[in-house]
Amino acid sequence: MARKKQFKAESKRLLDLMINSIYTHKEIFLRELISNASDAIDKLYYKSLSENLSDIDQNAFKIHLEIDKENRTLSISDNGLGMNKEELEENLGTIAKSGSFAFKQELEEKDEKEDAVDIIGQFGVGFYSAFMVANRVDVVSKKYGEETAYIWSSDASDGYTIEETSKDDCGTTITLYLKDNTDDENYDEYLAQYEIERLIKKYSDYIRYPIEMWVEEQKRIEPEDGEEQKPEDVKYETVKELKTLNSMIPLWKRSKNEITKEEYNDFYKSKFNDFTDPQKTIHFSVEGNVSFTSLLFIPGKAPMNYYSQDYKKGLQLYSRGVFIMDNADELIPEHFRFVKGLVDSQDLNLNISREMLQHDRQLKVIANRIEKKIKSELLLMLKNDREEYEKFWNTFGLQIKFGVYNGFGANKELLQDLLLFYSSKEQKLITLDEYVARMEEGQENIYFMSGEKIEKIDQMPAVQKVKDKGYEILYLTDNVDEFVLQILGTFKEKNFKNISQGDLDLDSEEEKKELEKKAEENKDMLEGLKTALGEKVKEVKISTRLVDDPVCLSSDEGMSFEMEKVLSAMPEGNPYGMKASRILEINPNHPIFEALQKVYAEDKDAVKEYADLLFDQALLIEGFPIDNPAEFSKKICEFMVRATK
Ligand SMILES: Nc1ncnc2c1ncn2[C@@H]1O[C@H](COP(=O)(O)OP(=O)(O)OP(=O)(O)O)[C@@H](O)[C@H]1O
Predict the structure, then answer these.
(1) Residues 473 and 324 in one domain
(2) 477 lines ligand 1 (CB under 6 A)
(3) How far is the CA of 33 from the centre of ligand 1 (A)?
(4) Which whole-number Å values give the CA distances from 419 to 198, 303, 361, 408, in the listed order?
(5) 346-355 residue pLDDT tens
(6) Is the CB of 122 under 6 A from ligand 1?
């Protein structure tokens, strides 16, 4: 009879804690046991290399899973280094004692580089996660090079036993006696082949040794005569076969030039559930204080839920090929939230459950490198493949614009070179850099005009004058555009200038004098128009920005018409009633100006009707609703009738 040894008192408490508190998901027990098996094989592999062992066949290394439904057990076997009696006692009898960690340290002390092995274990607790799903665990182990095998057995509550047993080859078999099902928990699922397959794919797909299991699959029975069969005649048989459940080598660990575009695309589509090929794949490794490999994708299409709260940004995280978490949020900045992909690093500080990262410096370093890499790849695309970049821009440009605006412009320096706006001159999208590079001599500002559509903006009265001067204008059609330019403030020391706001200052000294004279001569009439319009306008003045059109509205610096419209369109409305100032500008070179002068000279009050009509016209041109459309229409008709009398 084996002598029963007791867990130390603290160990018992710790074990209880382990079983009930460390992990959120019971299913990770399999990940932990597979990782241990892989570590054990790594150790034997290392030993065989360093001691030149001829009886070790490296191609035979494997992990084997077995489901026994009758006895409700699941076992995990490896042909790794195994443990002798002392090691079983040390490693499995002492919680938080990691033989694997000690092994790794030993190697490091010997200055043997870590890449010889890729040991996963470090805390010395993973094994006990088995007790989350099992009420008894047997560990049969035989150490390489030793004669005797031992069985360690425990039901967690009442200590453990170690006895001699027999085992042919070196390695370890861990058998879990699954707990009885409860109302909340169905432990039988760990006896289901598909569930085990799913868990291996999810957590242990890139363990570098084959994980095998006998599986039952339905196979079609081919007719003997080889003839075509009708679907209803097709017969199936259940076939048992030994199947390797994991892919072993992660795509990102393979050399870049060996991977085809198709492989990348297929990987992306299956991993991130997309039907469309990614627009861009970025695969890179960084060596240094924090080493990592990253495989990133810019999707070809924005996901359906991209602009909703359901969308979760973040990258998948692997540590030494073991899946740690989905959507590691800190790894990707908000302005690149469309990027999907993963990071694999052995330098991460994981918390004990390996379900979370410690929020530490390493993580920041990785996130920084990723951000820079995405930016530089986008810039390269912009430079070398404009068409591709525009495709990207049409899908995710809005996100970049929000990125500039958000956080009071904290990321504007990083993102400003990625911006595109429509150019009046080129009639296509251009960068701010391109705009500035071809500014006319003496041109001080980067001109822009906002509106609903390019064609509409192009028709706006104020646009003509700037165009006539030979200056390029950026046409802004997204709500966020003006806010973006406002937060940028300047670009390459050039100011942004809204051509419907403030003084454009495009006239020569002579022209200015001429206009001042006209304003002085018509001072009374302009005041009369202002009085007629009352509070609706801040001022009525002679325009310096109109060429062919009779009137336009302009605003002071500060709030622009476009911003007012954006605020009013917000779900909560424009709560503070913030409005752009309205200045009615009249073209002194338009026949309407002469007509006004004439009417004013004959009957000062008659000018009021003209004032209302002109103001309503200006509102309509600017895309604002008018107060009284019926009245407007009536007046137009009256004028038309009058004109024919
Ligand atoms: N299949 C196995 N073959 C050989 N040794 C094993 C096996 N499983 C566990 N061990 C030994 O038991 C120790 C404790 O395992 P446990 O899973 O609790 O911790 P760990 O793997 O070292 O660290 P972590 O908590 O990070 O997983 C391991 O370090 C290893 O020395």
Answers:
(1) no
(2) no
(3) 8
(4) 43, 22, 30, 17
(5) 887 766 666 6
(6) yes
The mean per-residue pLDDT over the stretch 539-559 comes to 90
Look at residue 289 in the predicted model and tell me its pLDDT: 83
Greatest mean pLDDT range, 108-122, 172-186, 208-222: 172-186
Which of ligand 1's atoms lies nearest the C-alpha of 174?
A: 1
Does 353 sit in the ligand 1 pocket, CB within 6 Å?
Answer: no
CB distance 36 to ligand 1 below 6 Å:
yes
Q: What stretches of 458-501 adopt beta strand conformation (E)?
A: 473-476, 490-491, 494-498
Domain assignment present for residue 7? The answer is: no
State which of 228, 244, 260 marks the end of a domain: 244
In a domain, 326, yes or no: yes
Same-domain pairing of 398 and 350: no
Q: What is the pLDDT of residues 132-160, one digit of tens each?
A: 999 999 999 999 999 999 999 998 877 89
Out of 96-100, 284-288, 326-330, 549-553, pick the least confident. Answer: 96-100
Q: For residue 100, give the ligand 1 atom closest to its CA.
A: 29
pLDDT at 188 over 80: yes
**pLDDT tens, 90-133?**
898 776 677 777 777 777 777 655 454 667 777 767 898 899 99
Separation CA 492–CA 416 (nearest Å): 11
Domain hosting 141: range is 12-244
- The residue whose CA is least distant from atom 30 of ligand 1 is 99
Residue whose CA is closest, atom 1 of ligand 1? Answer: 37
| The residue type at 566 | V
Q: Are residues 439 and 372 in the same domain?
A: no
- CB neighbour class for 255 (10 Å; exposed up to 12, middle 13-18, buried from 19): exposed
Task: Choose among 132, 122, 126, 168: nearest CA to 148.
Answer: 168
Ligand 1 contact, 171 CB (< 6 A): no
Please give the residue that has the higher pLDDT: either 359 or 106. 106
Q: Indicate whether residue 32 lines ligand 1 (CB < 6 A).
A: yes
Please name the amino acid found at residue 581: S
78 shares its domain with 206? yes
110 CA to middle of ligand 1, Å? 21
Taking the C-alpha atoms of residue 528 and residue 215, their distance in angstroms, rounded to an integer, is 93
